[in-house]
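Encode chain A's predicted structure.
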Amino acid sequence: MSTWDLVVSFDFDAEEVWIGEDPTNAHKPGTLSQGAYGAKVAVPLVLDLLRRIGVTASFFVPGRVAERYPHRVEEILAAGHEVGHHGYTHTSPLSLTPEQEEAELVRGREILVGLGADVRGYRSPSWELSPITLSLLEGHGFSYSSNLMDDIRPYRHEGHEIVELPVHWTLDDAPHFWFDLRSWSKTVRSSAEVRAIWEEEVAGIAALGGLAMLTMHPQIIGRPGRLQMLEQFLRWALDQPGVRVSTAVEVARRTP
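Encoded structure for chain A:
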């Protein structure tokens, strides 16, 4: 089997995923408690898991989360993990003016750099890019984006120096575990089912020598039972032939 890449990544959204979607949620402690769990309980548990199995991960953090929980970002960095950009607020670039998008990019990066991060990667809060996002990233010293689903291998954007590290909903925890409170039509899947989906997809990517970008959220994957599944899944992945476990920025640097 050829060499293939595995990146373990987390979008550390905390409360911002709900506030960015609807600012009135800022006054709903019950709603926000879902995100607070990520910062209060899940991130320490995730860091302990990664330490036990010897995996260095990539964390994408909104600037306002870093402002609210600077100690958590410092703990992530102290453990040797990469910290990337995930907006200042958790707001899609498509809902911003060009000036607002640049302001979000600059402010979020300033906060993360101020905490000691060498910020090279950008993951949009919505996995969406505006017509100017790539130019903004290039102009502000970023080296990669991790937002699009058009490949299973890293590539360089035409006309830009920005590397794309493809993602997909299959290897994201949210589609499988996020309960739809509005309609109650989307139920929570079992950890065993999600592990089977992830193993099937990763095995397929490995056979093709591609990049498996595992995208998770501390408030979602960080439930106790799911963390047990995650450890089992990662130990399985680490035992697969040809695997090369890297941070996102390391994969980007290797991309021609």
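The mean pLDDT is 95.
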